[in-house]
Amino acid sequence: MTQVVAHRGASRAERENTVEAFALAAALGSDAVELDVRRTADRVLIVHHDPYLPVQGSENRQAIVDLAAADLPAHIPDLQTALDACGGMWVNVEIKNDPREPDYDPSDSIADQTV
């Protein structure tokens, strides 16, 4: 049986890993979505692919792990909000925990928190 998995939601039509992208994937008939989970400085699980955000008006980047969830742009959902937007679809959750990135957690506690 073939199933359609929307990578980071309907990411060609909406900004990836957003509530809008997940809702559109469902509306378009996707069977599933893949999304990426990271953790903020205050240990909130959020959905975003890259470990950094651009600093507005600059070429610099800010590590998500150094920011509180309340300080993130509005388009970045927390995990529960993203999962709610994926209602009716199965979800492939990719936990971002790469030793080369600033949010690396050698204890893998992000996995326990995600579950």
Strand content: 15-25%
Order of helices and strands: EHEEEEHEH
In which range does the helix fraction lie?
10-25%
Low-confidence stretches: none
CA-based shape: globular
Please provide the count of β strands: 6
The number of helical runs is 3
Structural class: alpha/beta
How does this structure look, described?
This protein is of the alpha/beta class and 115 residues long. Helix content is 19%, strand content 23%. It is built from three helices and six strands, in the order βαββββαβα. The chain has helices spanning 19-27, 79-85, 109-114; strands at residues 5-7, 32-39, 45-47, 52-54, 61-63, 90-95. Strands 1, 2, 3 and 6 form a four-stranded mixed β-sheet that branches. The radius of gyration is 14 Å and the shape is globular. The two termini are 27 Å apart. The model has no long low-confidence stretch (mean pLDDT 96).
Summarize the model shown.
The protein has 115 residues and is α/β, with parallel strands linked by helices. The chain has helices at residues 19-27, 79-85, 109-114, and strands at 5-7, 32-39, 45-47, 52-54, 61-63, 90-95. Strands 1, 2, 3 and 6 form a four-stranded mixed sheet that branches. It has a two-stranded antiparallel sheet with strand order 4-5.
